[in-house]
Amino acid sequence: MGRSQFKSDLEAIAQRAAGGIITGVKAIARGDELGELVIHYHHDHASSTTVRIHAMAQGIAEYPEGSTFMLFTSDDDTPKPVTRAIEYTQPFLSGVSIEKLVAILSDFLEKSPDRTPDGNDENFDVDDDDSSFADFDADEENSQDGEMYSFAFGEAFGLFPATHGKATHSREEQWRIRHDLRCVAEAGYKIGLISGFGKDHTTGIVSLSIRINKLGLSKETLEAWDVEENDYLILLIRFLGPYAPLERIIERSSSGSAISFRVGKSKTYKPSHSYAFGAFMEAKSKNEANDTSSQGGEEQHSGPGFEKLFISNSLDQYLNECFIPLLKLRETKALSWEVANLELISKTGCVGVTPAEVTAEPEAAVETGSEPEGHHLLVHDHLTESSANARSLPLVAMQFTVRYFAKCTEFCLRCHRRLSKEFQALRPYICSDPLCLFQYMAMGFGPSVEHEILTQPYVVDLLVSLCYAAIQDGALSRIPNGSNNDVLPIREFPIGLDLKVPNLFNDHEVLDALIDQDQTLLVYEADKKQDSVPKPGQWIAFQNPEGGFVKHAVVTSADPIYRTLSIQLMGHSAVSTSPVSILDADAKLQTPACTAAGKRLVNIFPYDTDFDSLTHKMKGVAMRHILDTLPSVPAMEGYLKGKPYHTVRSMDQVSPAAASLLQWIVSSNRSCIFQIDCSRDIVAPASDGASQPSLPTQGPAGKGKSRDKERIPDMDGWVQFRFAQGTPDKELRFVKALQATAARKKISKHPTIFAWHGSHVSNWHSIVRSGLDYRDIRYGRAFGNGVYFSPHHSTSMGYCGTATGFVGWPGSDLKFDSCMSLNEIINAPDEFVSRNPHYVVSQTDWHQTRYLFVRSGPNSRPAIGLTTIGSTTPRKRTVDGDEKKGQDGEFHTQPEGLAIIGPRGAQLRIPLSAIPKRSVTVGPVIKWASSNCEKMSLDDEGEDEEDRKFLYMDDMEDGDVVADSRGFTSSSSSAEVRPQVAGVIRSERSSMVANPEKSMTDFVPGSLDLSTLPRLDPPEDASPFATKALGRELSKLQSVQANTPLHQLGWYVEFDNVNNLFQWIVELHSFEPTLPLAQDMKKAGVTSVVLEIRFGENFPMSPPFVRVIRPRFLPFMNGGGGHVTMGGAMCMELLTSSGWSPANSLESVLLQVRLAICNLEPKPARLQSTAAIQQWSTARAQDYGVGEAIEAYIRACNTHGWKVPDDIRRMKS
């Protein structure tokens, strides 16, 4: 079954549709994406001839039993009956074949109510509950397949219950949605309800998010992933059917979930309705792309946006195809995510995983790893930490997403197996499995081309231009019979991409046709078989019989009776060695004598030749013709900016072959390259006949981060690119060689040096991918075998020239003709083959490219010169012309006698960023050094008031806690003050606390005399909203304390003595014995740190006030630490208005307070002298006072620039 069965069924149903057998369906075709089909349905009152209904199969590997289809149409004028039919059909499309899908959909469409001319029958309103669809089961029992397709159909097959109109929900269902989403909020994530999900109906979209700066990622990682610290990582979950809790999802088949996911980023925690729905309605075909936006205009989206991440394609695919099957495996076999993934792929056989490999890796080994220090989000596993009927599906999905996003460099992007632990790349990649490599490069599971174009357009321009140069030498002239097999500079061609290209070398089976003067109509020969005639939607190339320039077009319609093809001209390509303009091409094409009626003869070459079947020389020519038709990168950038959810493949001007080739060019580059230059002159629109998207005319090239500080000074006239990391395998070999050499030669101060390397432009496509080597000889080896470098810029410049007649990629903005690199080399010149006049290094693993420079020709668009590219101000120069130095240490210090010389004859100043941050010490694991992720003082965005009210809208019932205006608790069934909290019936205290083994802790619960503690005054007022929130929190803590061993929990609350919800006493205990604090406590005979937690009337919108009552800590100024102020208040941004989020649970607050007290940086927490501590048994003089705690808290906030909550200011007054 699986993909092959899907393909076979699609071909069969397409033939049936073409024969007019299926009622109302005119055609069925394969979509542009894997698992997609497009149904062309004729509707009487649609403004166009047909309505295109797209069906996307999720879980195609398990088709048909384990897959489900998602239906959508983006036609602006889709009639309501069609929209309603799609809505009603959707719940019944799990585990069905394509044939059954089409039959169900056709049956619903044909049985729709009578339609008015405008398609808006009043009886067909989407809000009516008495739609005639609800009567199908009573009246229509037979369809064309002899089956009954009704709401009973879905129920009979165990799919979804009939919803009969607008999806409504009971109070219990709404409570479950709130419960599951509250679990997400209490785990530290933000919730955004979109378009009334949960409030009005159980279908729709929910947004789950967390700020990037909370994930503990290093600054180098953030730069490499193109995310900002204040961005939000967002998971959108779309429920196509009624919301089902996790336990029900597990009971269903994997295809029965009807849930889809999208991962992206945003500047806000919740994208707008239009952006959220747009993320699930991405245009995948050219027609759909044209129909989803107004003519010539951009798509209209309002409100906060939603952008794809560079790995969104991989994460989306993983979540949509594998999350539910993995969830079921984890539940049924008690596996971790990793082991479940190994078992899943071993069953599907999609990559080379054996059952032995699944059982060989212990669970503990795969789950433990190098978590960021103090990072708890990646450790928690809600699936195993909560009881079976209280688990939240959205929280499990969010934890899954965060885990694989934050750890994406540790896993293969395709099969998601853990990669080698020897090396951690800056960007994620794939494992060594050949199938993963193929799918990474050919099927879009690698980096998003659209993301790269929008963020780093010059990098894309560079990669395409280098590929174009590598297929050019000797490949530009027509090759008789394809017999010339000279080696091209390119070392590897794309394989297995299913590229269909025009075979311009085919002199035997050429389709001749006459073309009109407008170049819009072709009339072909009468004796040609129809199967050899291009079909609508197919690309063709045509050329004069005498040769010359080739034009490319797409067939828009075909008339077999009159033997005509209507075409739309898309571009041209050249087969000569001279660059030509579009006007030159038009003139050459019109030189032959015209035939009757002004038509002329041309040879037609359809895009139907398998690229893999061509010789290397023919492949080079075919690739060049395809790339000639590719629009410029600014044109693609402008298109994607105007249509944010579309792809390059949906552009009219981009053929399927060009889109696949562009994907291969970008994905086959495994180096992490950043564009340093990002200025852009105003670009004039193209002037050829084809319609062109609007080009960016101002602003920087791409929306990536400004990297002006990484620029190497005094390189005027050169465009700069920095290699933050080479290909992972080459970088691994380099770092291993560096470690070994540094240890052997005892190098510590200057382990590496820098040198130039110049080479012909055509060589750099392969150099970027596999590194420098000396496999080919071009200029001789007078100083021995090895890679030649020079410390002098002028020397390497002599090797950067281009061959006579070199032609760059016509669509390039850079239009460069020279290329050279700055390379990092292991500092062991005594082991070089030669060091004078050149460095000759025979060890291919001893060097890595760190900067690439390209020199643009006179027709380039970027402004390269004395102006800092990407800035609006000129460089400041001193009298002697050199740039002023920045702060000390801004540039890399070079070893004496081995310095590198720049183009001005002076020592080149290399920014420290040129050298990747790594350790050169010898060790078994090689990692990139992470900079300390400083805690950002960013205000978390406030959540939507309506969303928040919905989440915490629990109805009060008998036995629930109520409170008076001061927060004192009592049962709703009695006015008597009782120690019941949140409706939980208490038993003896012994049943509320798990009995610890005495060897585990010296803490004795209940031994604290609460009457001796100084406390803040009770609140004067309290809001019902805060009372409810605190009741829930206290109930949860009570449950946690009752079910967790005391020594593992680390905190204790005397719940029987909590008589005011707004004032708690908490004891922290059982500290790690090695901590200085624990040792001090043991000496003083103290077993706990007593805290008072005081809540304001605005909780949870404002943070609680947390202070230590006893014992007294050593002040910071005297060498103490632990984030305890001189007055005993906790000094934590989390507990201020600047760092607080209403989503924080009090369990997490207690955990973070404990972690802060245990933190050894910058100094460990210590107690005051033992003698002073021991006085507490007879006096309370050593307790922290209430007034000094509040004053110390306010001082700390003012010092750090944190906002003091209004509640706490009122406590002081």
UniProtKB/TrEMBL annotation:
Keywords: Glycosyltransferase, NAD, Nucleotidyltransferase, Transferase. Residues 119-139 have a biased composition (Acidic residues). Coiled coil: none annotated. SMART domains: UBCc. Residues 1025-1199 form the UBC core domain. The keyword Transferase applies. CDD domains: UBCc_UBE2Q. This is UBC core domain-containing protein. InterPro entries: ARTD_PARP, Poly(ADP-ribose)pol_cat_dom, UBC, UBQ-conjugating_enzyme/RWD. Residues 877-893 have a biased composition (Basic and acidic residues). Residues 112-139, 687-710, 863-895 are annotated as: Disordered. GO terms for molecular function: NAD+ poly-ADP-ribosyltransferase activity; nucleotidyltransferase activity.
